């Protein structure tokens, strides 16, 4: 990985780690639904502006419906779940729990999509579960019912991320593919449509005027969450995939918890404890087992391969 790609990787990890900080600022003030809804609206608007800037025509080739449904699964539900968790969990907790996404992918792939599950992946899932348990039991936050609910919300979000990866392959990739920026745009608008009924219901209970009265700190957090951590982060992520491939791009998952805990400690004064370190290390080891490619014997060279 060259220096430019490494800088993009670190910037992406800092942005996605920072998303948990911004949700921790906004969600207690606004509530979970407004936080998630405004985030996807800003994210969709930012991506639409990007497409206009690069003059990319939004031609979905019959895959718009799939992209919209993927948005509900890959953005709408997870963003709402993380916003719910942000009302009760420190930012560092949510960032560490977010790292279970590849583990959820292993379980969902084996149960629903016929994916081969290796002993290393089984070990990774078990280690990841142990990491979550350590964080829950030994962390600085008392294990109350709301905290358990927040942890469950984070795990539901990562399960949605894991499911969306397989559905993207089935609905988009195996049907001829689609420009990743269009997938991102369609998914964000799908999330807007999925969350709109909840936002309308929330607006009936809590008039939108009260959202507009939020202080500059909350609005700054929301703008950063929607434009930086969603729109701009997508641009970095897809550029990283193009430059270094999806497997190396996934190593951002290892760095997000580090930034999430660090931002919470620096900005919000959240306590960083040995439980964060122990839970994070166990989940990092689990990710290594899941993401590390299995060794396979090198194929015999063929004339066509030898000429490359």
UniProtKB/TrEMBL annotation:
Keywords, comma-separated and alphabetical: Membrane, Transmembrane, Transmembrane helix
Transmembrane segments: 36-54, 66-89, 95-113, 125-143, 149-168, 180-198, 218-237, 249-268, 274-295
Main location: membrane
InterPro entries referenced in this protein's UniProt entry, alphabetically: AA-Vitamin_Transporters, EamA_dom, EmrE-like
Pfam families: EamA
Location of this chain's protein in the cell: Membrane
Protein name, per record: Drug/metabolite transporter (DMT)-like permease
Ranges of residues in domain EamA: 9-135, 150-291
One cellular component (GO) term of this entry: membrane
Membrane topology term: Multi-pass membrane protein
